[in-house]
Amino acid sequence: MSDTRRRVKVYTLNEERQWDDRGTGHVSSSFVERLKGISLLVRAESDGSLLLESKISPNTAYQKQQDTLIVWSEADNYDLALSFQEKAGCDEIWEKICQVQGKDPTLDITQDPIDESEEDHFEEIPETTHLVELPPCELSRLEEIADLVTSVLSSPIRREKLALALMSEGYIKKLLGLFRVCEDLDNREGLHHLYEIVRGVLFLNKAALFEVMFSDDCIMDVVGCLEYDPALVQPKRHREFLTKTAKFKEVIPITDSELRQKIHQTYRVQYIQDIILPTPSVFEENFLSTLTSFIFFNKVEIVSMLQEDEKFLTEVFAQLTDEATEDSKRRELVNFVKEFCAFSQTLQPQNRDAFYKTLANLGILPALEIVMGMDDLQVRAAAIDIFSYLVEFSPSMVREFVMQEPQQTEDDVLLINVVIKQMICDSDPELGGAVQLMGLLRTLIDPENMLASTNKTEKTEFLSFFYKYCMHVLTAPLLANTAHDKNSKDQPESSAKINPVCPDNFQTAQLLALILELLTFCVEHHTYHIKTYIMNKDLLRRVLVLMNSKHTFLALCALRFMRRIIGLKDEYYNRYIIKGNLFEPVINALLDNGTRYNLLNSAIIELFEFIKVEDIKSLIAHIVDNFYTALESIEYVQTFKGLKGRYEQEKDRQSQKLNRYRRDARSLDEEEELWFNDDEDDEDGEAVERRMEDDFSDSYEKFMEAKKGAANGANGANNGKSATIPPASPTVAPNSSSSTVKTVALPATPVVKTALVGLVDYPDDEDEEEEDEEEDQSPRKRPRLSS
Questions:
Q1: Which has the minimum average pLDDT: 125-134, 266-275, 307-316, 437-446?
Q2: What is the pLDDT of residues 150-170, one digit of tens each?
Q3: pLDDT in tens, 634-657
Q4: What does the alpha-carbon distance between residue 314 and residue 304 come to, in Å, rounded to a whole number?
């Protein structure tokens, strides 16, 4: 029992003045040696780790709010709160805090916080004045009361004392009684004073006062006081709106009276904060922080109570998907779920995760699948809002459901296809719903939010599913609006000159622009799948038809799609573009634009500039070969001349590369002559042998290079002798009669016939024996192989 009583949630206030949930655990109070004092300890119920260790300081101001909250500040801008599951546990800890500080546990605050600016003046406050003395609650004293309340707002100490005085004397209910009297008497002056009083009491920022003011029997009178703003000629009719216009609809009867009361209270307090009270000035920003916290904790409590009531939520979803449910009833059910999801935004991430898992288990996604396909615009709009909450919180949960849908289901009723159809069929002229749905689709198909998934195959599986079952639905309007005319079949494949039906309707053009934006996203993030789809459907050709549209924004979307494809520098795409002659629509658009200096002109030129700077050789060659004549007259930028220059440079480079291995016989003979002449003065046999070996290796390497790049055979007549190709490392063997080099022919290398070049005669080589030693020919007399 004690465990349940002491079960708490720990909250801290962040910089945005929102409460962050630090975890759930069990609180206790005990002496901590390290802190040298009685401390509050909260240990996590999951693993027993320490969530909070806070010494109960004698000077810390603790506040008890809403019977189950204890709030305090430990340092500048560091506020803490304990939210108890049961009131009894809160009372026990509050008594312990008051015992340590020596305070009265019947009060809801233990200290009067002292502002630094007032520390010097603290001694001036008489010790006997523990509370601010309030004037009697009478009609004649309303002005005096209003002045008092207004005057204390600048002093934290006096605000605290006034709050205690108002609570101790039951003053709030007396004031509200005077309001009824003033209204009956139509006493406008008194009503204006009461406006100032009630507004000032709200700015005291005390939860204990809020509990009284926002109770069922007081809140409408509080709203009534706030109707009589002195700055207004006529009072506002807020009570009339809350009681007559704003109707509380129980789509499913709520049996829990506490829950119903909490929902009413939260709605009315939210109305006071958002509608009635003026926007606070810079100096008043923190005056209503407790009011914000009051609403926040109420919403958390409402969501928790509804979430725990499984019978209630089960009935909601059962009626939502029941075909027999009336349209008006279904509209109320969808709006309830939407409001429920909106409230859940106040939950912390771990609690929100549990909340959406509860909705998923109850069948929220199948229900949305049915509801989003209905004709009722209000129902569809609410369903889209619910779907956006789900996608933004957990795209993986939606993807998992989509992939688990039965395969026998028709493509049209798959959830994502229902979403795409809603996007396509949006009746709003500005396509507000379509833009929202397009953003949700992009979130679902974004690989970036698939990476953190525990299921490593999610990316592959989902993208395969999407391109198989959904992509054709997404691109259907695009393909329908860029259809070929009847004669297009007779045209060659490379021709892009078709007579399409370009959309002149602005709404259709907007829709196609949204679809192109999504496809451009796919090009950037889906490499394999989108490439296959573009190639199979010849999608780029169809997209470029939109370059003819009278809507420039649509032509720019089509151009952006092509620019993303070229930006990938993928040769598969480049070959596809060249084969389809897909630059033609772009260049036609540039030429049709004439000399107008506009966004379309700049975007097209940037496309060609990118190709030039990145030196995409295949595209440069295609553009210059096919379109340079049309583009050479454009001289206000150097882009096209630069393309031509790149083209010429590449052409020269290729030409030089070929010529390097295609030299004629005469130039080769001259080189050989020089080579032989360099060796004429070398008379020594051994030196000749060494030189011969080195030169032969060099000449052989040159020959092998020449052989790879040159054509078979050589110019000149063959004298009947064939030369065998020596090995890479010829074996040199000395002979007693003469120096010869024995060569071994490589069987895998074909014999190359070549012309013998003129030999240089040497004095010691004139013997006729050389004619009989053809196979033992000296390397110095061996003919060099030419190509």
A1: 125-134
A2: 888 877 888 888 888 888 778
A3: 889 999 999 999 999 998 888 888
A4: 15
140 in the same domain as 91: no
The single-letter DSSP state of residue 448 is: G
Q: Give residue-wise pLDDT tens across range 480-510.
A: 988 754 344 444 443 333 334 455 688 899 9
- Separation CA 104–CA 62 (nearest Å): 12
Q: What is the pLDDT of residue 683?
A: 45
Domain identity same for 168 and 246: yes
- Which residue type sits at 360? A
Both tokens assigned to 519: 């496809």
DSSP 590: H
Determine the angle formed by the axes of helices 349-362 and 377-393, rounding to 10 degrees: 130
Residue whose entry in the numeric block shows the structure tokens 């802190």: 35
Q: Is 727 left (phi over 0), alpha (psi -120 to 50) or beta?
A: beta
In the chain, % helix, strand, coil (3-state, to 5) comes to 60, 10, 35
Please state, in angstroms and rounded to a whole number, the distance separating the CA atoms of residues 211 and 201.
12
pLDDT in tens, 37-69: 888 899 888 888 888 888 888 778 888 887 788
Phi then psi dihedrals of residue 57, to 5 deg: -85, 140
List the alpha helices (DSSP H) in 660-725.
665-677, 685-709
Average pLDDT taken over every residue of the chain: 78
Kindly report, residue by residue over 339-387, the tens digit of the pLDDT. 889 888 888 777 888 888 888 888 899 888 888 888 888 888 899 999 9
Q: Is 680 helix (H, G, I), strand (E, B) or coil?
A: coil
- Could you give the CA distance from residue 433 to residue 15 in angstroms, rounded to a whole number? 33
CA distances from 108 to 64, 98, 213, 261 (A): 5, 10, 16, 23
The reply to whether 143 and 92 lie within a common domain is no
Q: Are residues 85 and 165 in the same domain?
A: no
Of 625, 658, 691, which residue constitutes the final position of a domain? Answer: 658
Judge if 152 and 297 occupy the same domain.
yes
Closest residue by Cα to residue 28 from 14, 44, 12? 44
- In sequence order, what are the residues at sequence separation of 6 or more whose Cβ sits closer than 8 angstroms to the Cβ of residue 547? 555, 558, 559, 585, 586, 588, 589
Q: How many CA atoms lie within 13 A of 195 on its CB side?
A: 19
pLDDT value for 490: 40
pTM listed for this prediction: 0.62
- Count of domains forming the chain: 3
Of residues 225 and 685, more confidence is placed in 225
**Least reliable range by pLDDT among 241-255, 296-310, 447-461, 526-540:** 447-461
- The pLDDT of 610-627, averaged and rounded, is 93
pLDDT value of position 35: 80
What are 239's two structure tokens? 């009570």
Q: Is 319 left (phi over 0), alpha (psi -120 to 50) or beta?
A: alpha
Domain-located, residue 571? yes
DSSP state for residue 585 in the 8-state scheme? H
Q: Is residue 703 part of a domain?
A: no
For 265, the domain range is 131-308
Tell me whether residue 326 is in a domain.
Answer: no
Where helices occur in 405-538 by DSSP H, the ranges are 415-424, 432-444, 458-469, 471-481, 506-525, 528-537
Task: Find all residues with CB under 8 Å of 33, minimum gap 6, and list them.
Answer: none
Q: Which two tokens stand for residue 174?
A: 């007396």
- State how far the Cα of 365 lies from the Cα of 186, in Å rounded to an integer: 55
- Tokens 């205690």 correspond to 164
Burial class (CB in 10 A: 0-12, 13-18, 19+), 442: middle
CB-facing half-sphere around the CA of 745: CA atoms within 13 A:
10
